[in-house]
Amino acid sequence: MNPDISRERENASFNLEILTNILDGGAEKTRRRREIESLVISDPDFQHEDLNFLSRSERYDAAVRKSAQMILKLREYGISDPEEIYSYKSVAKGVYQEPFGVHYVMFIPTLNSQCTTEQRKKWIPLAESFHILGTYAQTELGHGTHIRALETTATYDPSTQEFVLNSPTISSIKWWPGGLGKTSNHAIVLAQLYTQGKCHGLHAFITPIRSMKTHMPLPGVVVGDIGPKFGFDEVDNGYLKLENVRIPRENMLMKYAKVEPDGTYVKPPSDKLTYGTMVFIRSMIVGESARALSKSCTIAIRYSAVRHQSELRPGEPEPQILDYQTQQYKLFPLLATAYAFHFVGQYMSKTYHRISGDINQGDFSELPELHALSAGLKAFTTWATNAGIEVCRMSCGGHGYSRCSSLPDIYVTFTPTCTYEGENTVMMLQTARYLVKSYKQARAGQQLTGIVSYLNEPQNRIQPHSVSSRPTVVSINDLASLLEAYKFRALKLVEMAAKNLQAELQHSKSNEDAWNNSSIDLVRASDAHCHYVVVKLFAAKLSEIGDTAVHSVLSTLALLYALHGVAQNTGDFLQAGLLSVPQLTQISQRLKDLLSELRPNAVALVDAFDYRDEMLGSVLGRYDGNVYEHMFEWAKRSPLNHTEVHESYHKYLKPLQSKL
Amino acid sequence: MNPDISRERENASFNLEILTNILDGGAEKTRRRREIESLVISDPDFQHEDLNFLSRSERYDAAVRKSAQMILKLREYGISDPEEIYSYKSVAKGVYQEPFGVHYVMFIPTLNSQCTTEQRKKWIPLAESFHILGTYAQTELGHGTHIRALETTATYDPSTQEFVLNSPTISSIKWWPGGLGKTSNHAIVLAQLYTQGKCHGLHAFITPIRSMKTHMPLPGVVVGDIGPKFGFDEVDNGYLKLENVRIPRENMLMKYAKVEPDGTYVKPPSDKLTYGTMVFIRSMIVGESARALSKSCTIAIRYSAVRHQSELRPGEPEPQILDYQTQQYKLFPLLATAYAFHFVGQYMSKTYHRISGDINQGDFSELPELHALSAGLKAFTTWATNAGIEVCRMSCGGHGYSRCSSLPDIYVTFTPTCTYEGENTVMMLQTARYLVKSYKQARAGQQLTGIVSYLNEPQNRIQPHSVSSRPTVVSINDLASLLEAYKFRALKLVEMAAKNLQAELQHSKSNEDAWNNSSIDLVRASDAHCHYVVVKLFAAKLSEIGDTAVHSVLSTLALLYALHGVAQNTGDFLQAGLLSVPQLTQISQRLKDLLSELRPNAVALVDAFDYRDEMLGSVLGRYDGNVYEHMFEWAKRSPLNHTEVHESYHKYLKPLQSKL
After folding, report:
1. How far apart are CA A127 and CA A181, in angstroms?
2. Are B551 and B559 in contact (CB under 8 A)?
3. A162 flagged as catalytic
4. What is the distance in angstroms between the Cα of A634 and the nearest Cα belonging to chain B?
5. Over the stretch A38-68, which tens digit does the pLDDT of each residue have?
6. How many CB atoms lie within 10 A of CB A122?
7. pTM
8. pLDDT tens digits, residue range B389-425?
9. Are residues B432 and B523 in contact, defined by beta-carbon separation less than 8 angstroms?
10. Which chain B residue's Cα is nearest to A398?
11. Which of A227, A464, A636 minimises the CB distance to B635?
12. Cys-Cys with A181: which of A238, A355, B292, B341 at CB 3.0–4.6 Å?
């Protein structure tokens, strides 16, 4: 054990295990999680070479092998609880992805939710035994966010009782679905349904794309890998071009909409029914943000504790990087953010499960709020995390660029969350639509409930005041007071956006133009709303914590999170009259004090996330802090070192030298 | 040609060629640059497969081949002017790197500046004929920024008149030098010089590491590749462990310091002499920022002009993404930044050349200012560009993640500039040191010259005022007025940092602690200083432009750059009393107006950067806008598509299915 990092652990002011239990949601959950993680870590079948040393084809190969192993082992161990499966896979996969991801996350859930009873009987056993490997083919080369514009067609032919699927243009080629390129033999294809000469919009069709015997593409199917990406090397995101592919009528998912044998179209009873999965996935992404950021912080803070650099006092040894104020200022607010997002993720997951119970009972009343919240928080947390991972990486100096740090892989694996499952700006605007609607209802005298109820606050509370003429609203040392400030900032920005939108409507050609011309303000309002929600949920979590020492350190983190957010957005708070100019200096000073307060607990706070070395996959983030010897060992395994002299020397360098 | 993008070009309000000439520094320079670029583009030897389809070893192989070809062709064409070589290589390399980079940028320049006349005679011809391939080995596994702490030793043995080089610890292994792993046969090794029992600090030693006949590592030399990184796959950044490696006394670079045959150490006359190269490289990085950001903007803006998505008006066709206000708000400020940085880069390059003339005449008077400026601007421009590239990438939706967009490669190739040649936070603090020193001189009544002369402005101008009690300083439509505001903001923040530092000195253990405890404020002051310089140089450039239409569009860009910066930092401007709260609303509105004003010229403004498709290497950024058909063509070439059925199916999937 590196002595620097041992000393850090001795200095912690709180009991690590208590905090870990809080993060896991209870001591028993911690115990079971660790038990499952140990299963993988002690399993020789999961020992493997760093994927970074492999070519893309080898990486794909290794990922398929691992996926197949995971399936068999999960059955062998009888692990079937979704949370436990998640734990198992997190360790087994490390920072990498599985080509079967979409099979689990989209293909089977869609079958479950959109099949008729008969269809379920046929397809689910095939999917669960992996004879059918499926993907979900929605996005097209030219169409992402706006799914109504998708071009793929499914035309019903009553003479054979088949649908004929076609990709009529280049831009209609299905593009991006994970596992589509090489792995899947079936796809749920989203296509415009035509029957009896009329288009009925998007519907889902189970489409065989490869032979279940030979795995060769079926006639009329052009399928392949979309080529290398920024990350996800081991996944075969694919393309699919359909040329008069015929499938039986029964392959349309018909739980809701139907096509009768004669071609008669039967409408679905409600359009809210497919809403749920999307909300679920977005809610889960909030938790993914917390995980990616907490892993990055673990690596950066541990390495900053063992890395020595530069000179604070002449003649003395180089200090730990973690003692530099600028380093603390980079990392500790991110650490606070990781905790904040973890608690927000817990809240989203709990809320989703509560509300889906209601939905199953036919009660959709809370869905719009959760929909708006999950959209905005998905964007808010992924943007912050995306930038935060890179700050962590760059805080590690040159070695943050090495793949052995794992930080490049964490980044490229995480960054797509800003785009998939709803592009972030679009998400922010969806939330804004809900906020503006709620704001109007509040102004019309309606009493709002739930998280937007603050929009009922009296309007005059937030009129901008000349700062000197009124007492300061915020007490910068008090989380409750800061939370009030975040609330009024959100209210102010929602109000401004709503008013600007109203003003635009006066002289715009259409509602849509007015909306577009207000969209910067609308995004800003959503951002402030989400920021308020995060501070609120962090503060709420504190009230649940009994242990004094843990409560104390988490309170410091919460205050840092809130105050740092104020410092990053001082204009908003000044503009809303929530802050006075002299307070800015106090905030700067208080932030520095909070950094110093957290310093002795920094390593313990990342240890509490409890990532095993095998899950971090990072030489810089090793628990034992023995970084440099392991970097050297890792580098020696680089494929370029398999020979002492690379063949290019004989091919190009020697001939060049002889010519000059 | 895609009709959308043609229409964009027809709508431009200015003559493209005039702007391109301004960017190049004159019509003749544009002509010659294009001539050189055509040489590469028409050369069949430079047609090659996308490196993204190759394994790392294959990429390295391709890069060595290309480097060797470039050397021969440059000689064949008689291109020897450094700027022309730069143009040639930019096209030939595309977004990739050459393993010989350090040979040109560090090895030969160091020989030139630090060799005695005799040493030059021996080494330069060998280096220029590539019989010696060199690298510059400074950074060690455990030591980056603070070079005085390097551990490699060179101990003089008078009995054989040799230096004995050693890597005494794991952390002393040389790590990161480009081309060290497999390509170079010599390295300039920075090591602590020991002679006659005394350490004389760091000196440079030409160290043979591989046989010039067989390219095998020499005895005592452990050399290899440091393994895969975030980008730079085609470069063999290396490690070097030296075990009692003996080199002749004459291999120490002895232009300044010397070791006599008997071991007597002779001091160098001045320590300023090695300053220049560093300043030069940092100045050049400012230009690299401009190039990376302008390439990213070109790709994102062209693609946004041909990409249609979502619905502005129900029933109407999907609009161009570029018509969305949120998209404009992401991209146009970055476009303005790319122009700003381009002009700053021009200034830095011109200033460097002027000052190096002075230095050659023994006049070092302007070097400290240039040193401080290049450090801060290197950090300021690379941070902004680093974040900006990712905004561009994510503004392209899912396809920004595809390697065919080139944006991932631009990012991973650029991001190391935030760390190498001086880590950015360290750079900002170097600039701050100069600012604080200058501020103190100004307060002591000294009249400052050059770019820091604003620190002489009367102190009472920037006392914080109650916003309501004094007239507003800034006229938000006037660039000159905004420039004044940036100046006073910088002055205010330098003053605050200096005062905080002074206050810390009262109760800190040491100057160094006081400095560390003020470092957040110091970085903030540097940032404001650099921001002011950028606005100033952009404004200065405008005054040189005669053409009315070009002047007009660049003025809009400059105003957008300045005003967007104010909007991002409103707290600073409010705090300094330079802005009033009601003005914030006006700024938001004015920013939207500027986005609309720029909209018709957006494509023309990126066209003016004049990047040939071959230099962008981006399907999304194609000049002709024909994106989707070329994406499909590119994807089909993916190595995973070389077979219809991947071998992993037979190895893992079929066996899995048979077990379930």
Report:
1. 18
2. no
3. no
4. 8
5. 999 999 888 777 899 999 999 999 999 999 9
6. 14
7. 0.96
8. 999 999 999 999 999 999 999 999 999 999 999 999 9
9. yes
10. B419
11. A227
12. A238
